[in-house]
Amino acid sequence: MRLTEARRRDRDPDRPLLVSRWHETADRHLTAQRRSLLITWISFGVTFGTVRVITHGIRGGWLPWGNISAGGEHLHHYNIGIATLAGVGLIAVRGDEHAVGHPAVAAAYGCGTALICDEFALLLDLKDVYWAKQGRISVDVSLGVLSVLGAYLTAKPFWHEIGRVTRHHIVAAAARHGSATA
User: Fold this and answer.
1) Taking the chain (182 residues) in consecutive chunks of 10 residues, what is each chunk's mean pLDDT?
2) What is the pTM of this model?
3) Which of 159, 83, 70 is CA-nearest to residue 116?
4) With 146 labelled, which of 1, 36, 43, 72 sits at a CA distance of 20 to 30 A?
5) Contact of 44 with 114, CB cutoff 8 Å
């Protein structure tokens, strides 16, 4: 959705100027498809990082809860990921245009994919090697890098414009601050 001239003039006075400029930049540079891809990659990275922290917290005993179980069987988080992707697939197959491009669907897809990727070694070997030292660091780093790289490449012009707008804002604020103190 592109910002109309009226929306630019009637910008929310409670929203900081820089945040408003970021929104304008997103409206200028992100098509609906790129916005969905960006949301997917960001949700993938956030979910992957969050799951890593939670699993380390459960194993380390510094989080107050434990693993999820059903009938005495441990439920791995890839199961939640598979269920999430099945739901996203159902939305895609149904073809509801309002839902297909919705940011929540993109976020669900990124989250579900991260939950599956985080336990990929278990799915590959059918052995619970989640805490084995072999390859864990490379897998963690690789997926983190892929997440950041995907988010960047999905919306490269947007990120460059965000950098330009932010630099301009900082320089202008510094100039105002410098002239106010002089």
Assistant:
1) 48 76 88 88 92 88 88 88 95 84 92 87 68 63 79 87 92 84 68
2) 0.70
3) 83
4) 1
5) yes
